[in-house]
Queue: 4 jobs
Job 1
Amino acid sequence: MSKYNLLWKHIKKNGGESSKLSFDEIKNIAGIAIDHSFVNYKKELLEYGYEVKKISLKDKTVLFQKIN
């Protein structure tokens, strides 16, 4: 079980075609703060039909995109 499973399930349920979440929103959903290991875990999201499209450190957001 991944530490980001709650986040992946949330995105699958609520993501639509794309979804942008702030780092704070991700922390509230997943119960943990996003950290450098996120880039290793993001490939798990493919199993849920989504991908991480962009991580903005400046804006502190992550853009998720549905895989067509």
Note: Strands lie at 18-22, 50-56, 61-66.
Job 2
Amino acid sequence: SFPIIYLQNGQRVIVDLNNELPKDLGSLIQSTWANYRIVHLMEKGDLRSALAKILSMCNYPKVFEKGEPLELKGDMNFRVTGDLIVSFPDNGSKSKPDYVVINLIDNYTEPTPWLVKRLMEREGVKIIDYPPRDNTYPSGIEESEILEAGTDPFSLIEKLLALTKQNFSTQIEIPVYQSHKADLRVNINVDFFLRIGESDAIIDLTGLTPQIVSFLEDHQFSYLSLSAEKDPVELVAKTLEFLKVQFGNGQHSFVIAEKDSWRNIQFTLPGITFADPTGKAIIATPADLRNELAALLSQKGYRILELSSLFHIHQ
């Protein structure tokens, strides 16, 4: 009359709900049948401790305790915590999750958003909120604001100048020196020409000679050379620094499902964050974002400048 859990690995777990199974009978069962385990539960125990006891008998590779983080590393990193996290054995099936996260929620705790659940399923993590709430999933994902960076440095710099509301000209010939006495005029072909503060400025992707660069600097031109730079993140950083736009460069963490200090999900993206002149936040990242992740960032007010296509081309 006791509940028994039948596991796919042949293990059998008898759940003694009220600690009523006699010890000698329990010893007899476990000594006679090697695949049987018994979990004794006390009436005053809570659900989390009961689940922890049961799962510890199931021979899973690992059962994470309350608040112990699950770290997933990749082009973007995830950090997941919950009441219990179960690591499943690798059975070669892509349809089954690698981990299951169990969150025990009450009427005052928000369930995990469906978009976060779907994102984590793509990462091999199934999230279960208990007791369950509304399980209906919307048919589509809200459109996120993804900005195309193009597939070459020129289009990337052009996009950055447009986002920062710079007035600029591209691939033009500009006069850099003129002498009426000597009837002399010197023009130079440049990739980008703009004004930064009170100075004329040039962004060079082609590679001007050192003599021309020295001549430009002698005549008070601000000059940025990007001809040797192939990393799109560095292209963004150097351009923003040249434009005197404040930015953050490195790893950026975002919490996407927070219930309390020990039950949440956060992910970390590499890249650069900055704001356009209206204060709208932008993140430029080489990570290949999932649709769900892009939508979650949009919900947090970010416009996304994807560098993934340009990044892969120039690796």
Note: The longest helix spans residues 153-163.
Job 3
Amino acid sequence: MADTNVNTLDVANFGPNLKRFRLENELTHERFAELLGVSSRVVYDWEDGFKYPRFQRAVEIANVLKVSLDSILRTA
């Protein structure tokens, strides 16, 4: 069943795209996590699809990576 909470995302492509943009910005897991105020374990979990950020955090991620939120969610 789909989560209908408005604070969550449809994240089918989120993890792979997050990793791609993080690497394009030459950010380690640790540095990226530091910029967001989360643990590096959380970044690993996002990239591997084990966990997903809430909407506001996803907006912060897009800002740190200097990309649109749409670009993180679209099919590569």
Note: Confidence is low (pLDDT under 50) at residues 1-6.
Job 4
Amino acid sequence: MKVIDQKSWSWTLYRRDDEYILSVLCGSVAMYGREVILSKNEISEYLEHGIDELAKKITYEPSKYKSRQIIGFHDDPAVKIADNEWRNSHKSQT
């Protein structure tokens, strides 16, 4: 598991082998994450145009992605390691 890219307070894109997983911050008063595995079409769109548009769709209509939600994603030790590695690598760049 590795963090590929991140937009603070918006989304984080992870890669695990051939899977891309997008974690998007949703909500207004009560904030929560919605994590989904990208489809082949979404991966193609990401590689061609970036991830911002898909992240916006998920943020504004999270219920459309509920069936694809990964429950307990951030409890996975591999995700915690990837997040820490990302933070540590970007601390040294600021």
Note: The longest helix spans residues 77-91.
